[in-house]
Amino acid sequence: MMKKIVAKASFVKGSPRKFRLVARSLENMSLEKAIIAARAIQKRTAGTLIDVLEQALGNAKNNFKLSPENLVVSSIIIGEGPRFKRQDVHAHGARFGGGVRHKKLSHITIELKEKNGK
Asked: Can you name the residues that pair with 86 across neighbouring β-strands?
């Protein structure tokens, strides 16, 4: 029976668009290769994805007694979280939001599955 291991991180600081840029390159890799590849990516969002990948690895070891060699990153879902509005103090005129900056948050869900034939 195929087991699915899930790890989640909610309300993570960073825009979903920037997280998806890194997440797309890590899907369908083995778990160990995905962690190594994420460490090589020079983006701030890669560090957060490494944390969630390691959380998924811990879930697999402790809750399901699975070895990391047999795991594949089946999907990485990046959802939009709430946006905080922050006022920029410089003059911006009446148009284009009047200096309102949106601080974006993301929800990350990583699913692992066992390799086929194991």
From this structure: 101
* Residue range 4-87+96-114, CATH number: 3.90.470.10
- Mapped to the 3 state alphabet, what secondary structure does the chain carry? CCCEEEEEEEEEECCHHHHHHHHHHHCCCEHHHHHHHHHHCCCHHHHHHHHHHHHHHHHHHHHHCCCHHHEEEEEEEEEEEEEEEEECCCCCCCCHHHHEEEEEEEEEEEEEEECCCC
pLDDT for position 2: 74
pTM for the model: 0.88
**Mean pLDDT value across residues 17-46:** 96
Position 111: which residue type? E
Please report, as a single letter, which amino acid is at residue 35.
Answer: I
* For residues 58-79, average pLDDT: 94
Q: Where are the domains of the chain?
A: 4-87+96-114
